[in-house]
Design a protein that fits this description.
It is a single chain. The protein has 426 residues and is an alpha/beta fold. The chain has two domains: 113 residues, Urease, subunit C, domain 1; 302 residues, Alpha-Beta Barrel (TIM Barrel). 35% of the residues lie in helices and 21% in strands. The protein has 13 helices and 15 strands. Strand 14 and strand 15 form a beta hairpin. Helix 5 packs parallel to helix 6 and helix 6 runs parallel beside helix 7. It starts with a helix and ends with a strand. The N terminus is likely disordered. The structure holds zinc ion (ZN). The site of zinc ion has 4 residues, from loops.
């Protein structure tokens, strides 16, 4: 009696898991191939795509039908550069003193929802307070809704570097100089310890600030910040722990050290010259352009008093560089991944990046592939980024042809992640 009850319970739960959904896709972009497939049925069971068939197949009473027969269906997008905890605004510098982790957590939940509803079913978070990593775990457990997250936890910086959390503070409120435990490290040994500490705290990737940056309270915006020995130590320690390294870099010297040191991605790459592009190709390093962040800080800098005085000239100089450099790097054959730096601008506006990539010469289909199959491969995740049998059902759609008007991707009408629907506008 008891055993049969257990079997019945088990069967029942299997039926729930194996719930079948059929999606009629009028137009399908699979994330890998260059052709647009017409009139296709996607079959989803549980969280997985279990079949792709030609034509619109009939559904039974037990199956759910989603009619996207007039829409353009794609894999869920992946953004390689997001800061999910925060959103930049005029009051950002003050918020460093007024917000605690609980405040950031509530904000992060709201940002995650907006990101997912914009069609981004996976993100790599490139630096926060640790809320980013906790949010990843809460989303994985199903406690809150949001994209899949790969987290670097906290960024690593040299003392006084771009990601030193006390940069620009009065000495009397610094308490103590932050050390490798909080992501600030100098010299090979401290750098190794800092990597191990982030992995201990749950990091999936390591992020370093290889050069100065725009938004930190410091005059320099692009100078080198780690030595090549330090970068090599970070990359090698990461390798031992199974994590790869992303490097924030604006200036050439720091960028070249990062590439030679073995990082996997260069973030921004603002002042990348031809010699550095050749180096990128030689080492197989990816550029994550973040054009949207560049254009957004350049716009904000034109508003008087928006940034502290020390930041304004940097934002005006570096911001507009990024799109130009991306265009040149793409034409030179540098590997490109899709990433926006959302958080520097409004969460949920990530798809603006597609438009800015296409504006300087990348074909729409290739931009979509960057944000899907290319990024999935970079994350070494063979379950996302392509619409094919066996992958997770992370599926999005827009109403009109994005290959004719790339801004269509800024108006997503359908979002499914892990087989669950989060958005459906008819
Ligand atoms: Zn960033």
């Amino acid at each position: 009696m008891r055993v049969s009850f257990l079997i019945a319970l088990l069967l029942n739960s299997l039926i729930i898991i194996a719930q079948t959904t059929v999606i009629h896709c009028g137009n399908l972009i699979d994330g890998v191939s260059d052709d647009l497939k017409r009139d296709v049925s996607l079959i989803v069971e549980g969280n997985t795509i279990t079949g792709i068939e030609r034509g619109f197949i009939e559904t039974t009473d037990n199956e759910t039908l989603i009619d996207l027969s007039n829409a353009f269906v794609m894999p869920g997008f992946i953004d390689m550069h997001v800061h999910i905890e925060s959103e930049y605004g005029k009051d950002s510098y003050l918020k460093k003193f007024t917000l605690d982790k609980a405040d950031k957590a509530f904000q992060a939940v709201s940002n995650a929802k907006m990101t997912l509803e914009a069609g981004f079913t996976t993100i790599r978070d490139l630096g926060g307070s640790g809320v980013n990593t906790a949010l990843r775990d809460a989303i994985n457990k199903g406690t809150v809704s949001g994209p899949r997250i790969y987290s670097v936890n906290k960024s690593l910086a040299i003392t006084g570097g771009h990601a030193d959390p006390t940069n620009g503070y009065g000495e009397h409120i610094m308490c103590a100089t932050p050390g490798p435990e909080s992501g600030v490290c100098d010299g090979v040994e401290e750098c190794m310890k800092a990597v191990r500490q982030q992995v201990k705290l749950g990091a999936d990737w390591i992020k370093i600030t290889a050069t100065a940056g725009v938004l930190s309270i410091a005059k320099d915006g692009d100078g080198p910040q780690f030595t090549i020995e330090e970068i090599k130590a970070i990359v090698d320690t990461g390798k031992d722990r199974g994590v790869k390294v992303a490097a924030h870099a604006h200036g050439v010297e720091g960028m070249q050290r990062a590439i030679k040191g073995g990082v996997t991605t260069i973030e921004h790459g603002s002042y990348m010259d031809e010699e550095t592009m050749d180096l990128m190709k030689q080492y197989g390093t990816y550029l994550v352009p973040t054009i949207t962040a560049g254009s957004s800080v350049a716009d904000s800098a034109k508003i008087a008093g928006y940034f502290p005085d020390v930041v304004t000239p940097k934002a005006l100089a570096v911001g507009p560089q990024i799109q130009n450099t991306f265009g040149k790097a793409y034409k030179a054959g540098v590997k490109i991944a899709f990433g926006t730096d959302a958080g520097v601008f409004k969460h949920g506006k990530n798809a603006k990046e597609f438009e800015l990539m296409v504006e300087v010469g990348m074909p729409p289909m290739e931009a979509i592939q960057c944000a899907t199959s290319v990024n999935a491969a970079l994350l070494e995740n063979d379950k996302i980024g392509v619409l094919e049998t066996g992958r997770f059902a992370d599926i999005v759609a827009c109403e009109n042809n994005p290959l004719e008007d790339i801004t269509e991707l800024q108006r997503i009408i359908f979002v499914m992640k892990d087989g669950r629907i989060y958005k459906l506008i008819n």
